[in-house]
Amino acid sequence: MHRLVKAGRTMSSARLLRLQAHFPQGRGPLLRRDLTAEAAFIEIGGVKAPLRRPQRPDLVPRGFVNHFEAHRVVSPEALGHFRWMLQKDLLGQDMFLLGAPGPARMRMAQAFCELTGREVE
């Protein structure tokens, strides 16, 4: 069974099954964050990036990933956006999120920063 590790703890099996119910089987987890003593990385849909230790951990957003999970917004579409954001981050390119008025883009950006350990001011 695949593990989804977040902030040093393994996600419960029930929660992982709820997440995996949205995705095609046989491809492994589409979202994976692993923190070990040797290296820390995030993998979204096959795109893997190292996590950097933030200089100011108090500025890293908290609770936005849980918001996506609690409201079942972690859909293949949302993971596709996170994957695209991770690709842009790896290439050092800027991102510009477009969409209808509302908090969705801000929540997605905050969740991405939480997943990658990026500071936000």
From TrEMBL:
InterPro entries: VWA8 (IPR039891). It comes from the Eukaryota. One of its GO terms (cellular component) is cytoplasm. This is ATPase dynein-related AAA domain-containing protein. It comes from Rhizochromulina marina. The lineage of its organism: Eukaryota, Sar, Stramenopiles, Ochrophyta, Dictyochophyceae.
